[in-house]
């Protein structure tokens, strides 16, 4: 089966930090617009000079959304399917130009894809009745692919019934699961989904260490960079059919980290090396940011130093990583309420949006689709059908022209790829 890929004229971008320092990029040489016909299963993803590239040359502009629920033992399915249908949710994503769907998956679920999905969790969608977890994920991949939506699978270790250890441990191993068990969870997922053309990436572990992880301290027990590097390198060898990206979160640290994985300073001195240049180019560094509704200690939102002091801290924690490593930085989780009752959250989100646009960090995945997202709410309202227009407007400001994979109308017409562009014109130079 063939994928006809038609790329419109796509302005390239230089990394944000280079532009701020007056640097010059030769990314244009990598982004020559062409028309190509490609094997559907031959799509590959890399990152160079801070940009995500399709087949090494087409700049992909991400607009993502998390839909959680498969990270919980009670539902074993994305939430809301008791009130809406899978097709309705995916249609909503496509209509609003979300091109990436991030799906959190609990470690215990990844280890047993034969687990039955409770009927109460999918009661509103008769097409899913009787499915186990693996077949439910099959259906999500297939229906997302039909709409040109890419998927990122994210492994979570905070399932309420079986953790790697205690909740405050959060490492990639613990009293209830070994390091080998952690890698085996990904083996199960990649065995089943590694050859899916719309599997954009695997997010190796959400919030690694919960404050206990280190980076580049030469400590094999706690150095997350070593565990992530070794795990990705091993899985690349074992699953050559997977051509997607490796999302590697930072560690928690710093006054402005808000107890989420925003600290990537270690990558400035010890970036991930997956042993071959081609494999290393598939690394994406990921940061997570949440506002004062999740982290009440963020009192600086209400001070006269806001947002300048926060911008300087973000620059220090992760702002220079794209320039230093050449790899893309994706904001894999950010969000909050825009209600008047939580003005701090609204101020923070608007300020962070300005930061993303100014620094050309506009590849983001918003938290979350779910209206039952604690403290933040979702892009959908409580009925799981009505959009939150304020949040959609905020996301459209950050990424007004995301890349689009669109099936052509003509029989055997393949697909068209429209690369899109950044909101900040400087990022397109």
Describe this structure in words.
This protein has 429 residues and is of the alpha/beta class. Helix content is 27%, strand content 17%. The chain has 12 helices and 15 strands. The strands form 4 sheets. Strands 6-7-8-9-10-11-12-13 form an 8-stranded parallel barrel. A hairpin with a 3-residue loop joins strand 4 (51-54) and strand 5 (58-60). Helix 11 runs parallel beside helix 12. The longest helix is centred in the C-terminal third of the chain and has 17 residues, at 343-359. It is globular and about 55 Å long. The two termini are 35 Å apart. Residues 1-38 and 159-163 have low confidence and may be disordered.
Radius of gyration over all CA atoms, rounded: 20 Å
Indicate the proportion of strand residues.
15-25%
What is the chain-wise order of helices and strands? EHEEEEEHEHHEHEHEHHEHHEHEHEE
Main β-sheet, in a few words? Answer: 8 strands, parallel, barrel
Helices, by number, come to 12
The percent of residues in helical segments reads: 25-40%
User: Structural class of the helices, strands and pairings?
Assistant: alpha/beta
Query: Count the strands?
Result: 15
The pLDDT mean sits at 86
Oligomeric state of shown chains:
single chain
Uncertain parts: 1-38, 159-163
Principal-axis shape equals: globular
- Straight-line N-to-C gap: 35 Å
Give the strand line-up of the largest sheet: 6-7-8-9-10-11-12-13
Key structural traits:
429 residues; alpha/beta; 8-stranded parallel beta barrel; 15 strands; 27% helix; globular
Write the layout of secondary structure elements.
Elements: E1 2-6, H1 16-20, E2 35-39, E3 45-48, E4 51-54, E5 58-60, E6 63-66, H2 86-95, E7 100-106, H3 107-110, H4 133-146, E8 150-156, H5 179-193, E9 199-203, H6 224-238, E10 245-249, H7 266-269, H8 277-280, E11 283-288, H9 308-319, H10 321-325, E12 328-334, H11 343-359, E13 364-366, H12 389-398, E14 404-407, E15 415-418
């Amino acid at each position: 089966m063939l994928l006809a890929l038609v790329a419109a004229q796509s302005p390239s971008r230089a990394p944000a930090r280079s532009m701020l320092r007056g640097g010059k990029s030769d990314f244009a040489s990598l982004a020559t617009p062409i028309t190509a016909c490609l094997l559907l299963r031959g799509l590959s993803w890399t990152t160079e000079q801070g940009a995500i590239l399709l087949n090494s040359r087409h700049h992909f502009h991400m607009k993502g959304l998390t839909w959680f629920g498969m990270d919980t033992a009670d539902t074993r399915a994305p939430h809301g399917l008791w009130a809406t249908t899978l097709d309705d949710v995916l249609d909503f994503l496509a209509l609003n130009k979300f091109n990436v769907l991030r799906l959190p998956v609990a470690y215990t679920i990844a280890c047993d894809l034969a687990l039955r999905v409770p009927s109460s969790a999918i009661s509103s969608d008769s097409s899913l009745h009787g499915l186990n977890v693996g077949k439910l994920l099959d259906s999500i991949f297939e229906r997302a692919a039909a709409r040109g939506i890419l998927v990122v699978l994210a492994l979570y270790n905070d399932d309420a019934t079986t953790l790697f250890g205690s909740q405050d441990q959060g490492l990639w191993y613990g009293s209830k699961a070994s390091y080998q068990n952690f890698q085996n969870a990904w083996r199960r997922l990649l065995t089943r989904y590694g050859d899916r053309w719309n599997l954009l990436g695997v997010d190796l572990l959400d919030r690694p260490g919960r404050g206990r992880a280190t980076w580049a301290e030469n400590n094999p027990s706690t150095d997350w960079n070593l565990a992530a590097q070794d795990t990705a390198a091993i899985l690349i060898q074992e699953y050559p059919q997977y051509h997607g990206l490796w999302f590697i979160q930072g560690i928690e640290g710093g006054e402005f980290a808000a107890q989420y994985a925003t600290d990537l300073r270690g990558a400035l001195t010890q970036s991930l090396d997956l042993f071959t240049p081609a494999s290393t180019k598939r690394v994406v560094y990921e940061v997570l940011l949440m506002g004062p509704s999740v982290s009440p200690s963020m009192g600086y939102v209400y001070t006269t130093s806001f947002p300048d002091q926060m911008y300087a801290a973000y620059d220090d924690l992760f702002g220079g990583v794209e320039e230093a490593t050449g790899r893309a930085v994706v904001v894999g989780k950010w969000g909050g309420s825009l209600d008047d009752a939580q003005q701090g959250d609204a101020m923070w989100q608007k300020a962070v949006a300005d930061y993303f646009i100014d620094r050309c960090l506009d590849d983001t995945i918003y938290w979350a689709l779910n209206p039952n997202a604690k403290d933040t709410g979702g892009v959908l309202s409580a009925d799981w059908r009505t959009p939150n227009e304020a949040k959609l407007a905020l996301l459209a400001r950050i990424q007004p022209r995301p890349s689009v994979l669109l099936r052509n109308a003509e029989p055997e017409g393949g697909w068209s790829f429209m690369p899109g562009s950044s909101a900040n014109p400087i990022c397109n130079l």
